[in-house]
């Protein structure tokens, strides 16, 4: 989703070579946020805030100027992105949307959802782990996926779908669609960990009856 998160792409492409599947990648300038011009104004938005009207408005206002037309363009980007994922084909197979992201040390992590964290109210459950970096964590929207992953080495956060802040992120959109969503989030450069997380997720999803 974010064009500066290249560890996530490398980890996923390796997994796709071994297991098959499809990756949809946003390609831009290599920066996290997307920029575009309308008339004489330049607009900036976070692509992972474009999936609801409220989120698209907030990210434009946060990062630069706002206009109705720019808002329309951001929402059109989100629709084009969803078309590229091809949700209709997803609904025929295992109904699950997996995203991959990378984060910076000391910013967004599983701790953001724990007691006193910036996003505490957005999480229904958090399963911290002592031995692994909180920057490497699974973020899920369904209790069954939380249960599936919480016995492993990595931190797991379950989104509280009833009260989660409408920030326009794909996890919020997916919860509204009742489309199961799992984000495999790792620190920039944690390639080995992110590959291990994807392998662990696949192993757990392969368990019969899941
Ligand atoms: Zn990201």
Task: Annotate the secondary structure layout.
Elements: H1 6-19, E1 34-38, E2 41-45, H2 53-63, H3 68-85, H4 87-92, E3 97-103, E4 123-127, E5 137-140, H5 143-149, E6 155-159, H6 170-177, E7 181-187, H7 191-205
Helix pairs in contact: 1-7, 2-3
Zinc ion (ZN) binds at residues 1-2, 5, 48, 101.
Could you explain how this protein is built, in words?
With 210 residues, this protein is α/β, with parallel strands linked by helices. Strand 5, helix 5 and strand 6 (155-159) form a beta-alpha-beta unit. The chain has a domain at 94-205. It is built from seven helices and seven strands; from the N terminus they run H-E-E-H-H-H-E-E-E-H-E-H-E-H. The chain has helices spanning 6-19, 53-63, 68-85, 87-92, 143-149, 170-177, 191-205, and strands at 34-38, 41-45, 97-103, 123-127, 137-140, 155-159, 181-187. The site of zinc ion (ZN) has 5 residues, from loops.
Task: Describe the structure concisely.
This protein has helices at residues 6-19, 53-63, 68-85, 87-92, 143-149, 170-177, 191-205, and strands at 34-38, 41-45, 97-103, 123-127, 137-140, 155-159, 181-187. It is α/β, with parallel strands linked by helices.
Percentage of β-strand residues: 15-25%
As a whole number of angstroms, the C-alpha radius of gyration is 17 Å
Shape: globular
The strand order across the widest sheet is 3-7-5-6-4
The helicity comes to 25-40%
Question: Key terms for this structure?
Answer:
210 residues; alpha/beta; 5-stranded mixed sheet; two-stranded antiparallel sheet; 7 helices; 7 strands; globular; binds zinc ion
């Amino acid at each position: 989703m974010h064009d500066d998160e290249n560890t996530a792409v490398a980890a996923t492409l390796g997994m796709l070579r071994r297991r098959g599947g499809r990756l949809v990648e946003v390609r831009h300038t290599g920066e996290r946020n997307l920029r575009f011009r309308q008339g004489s104004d330049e607009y900036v938005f976070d692509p992972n805030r474009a999936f609801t009207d409220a989120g698209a408005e907030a990210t434009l206002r946060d990062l630069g100027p706002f206009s109705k037309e720019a808002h329309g363009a951001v929402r059109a980007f989100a629709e084009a992105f969803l078309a590229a994922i091809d949700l209709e084909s997803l609904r025929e197979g295992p109904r699950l949307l997996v995203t991959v992201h990378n984060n910076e040390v000391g910013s967004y992590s599983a701790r953001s959802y724990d007691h006193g964290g910036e996003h505490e109210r957005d999480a229904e459950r958090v399963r911290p782990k002592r031995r692994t970096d909180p920057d490497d964590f699974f973020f899920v929207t369904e209790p069954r996926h939380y249960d599936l992953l919480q016995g492993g080495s990595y931190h797991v956060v379950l989104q509280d779908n009833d009260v989660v802040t409408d920030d326009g992120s794909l996890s919020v959109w997916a919860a509204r669609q009742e489309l199961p969503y799992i984000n495999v989030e790792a620190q920039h450069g944690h390639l080995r960990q992110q590959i291990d997380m994807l392998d662990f997720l696949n192993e757990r999803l392969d368990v019969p009856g899941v």
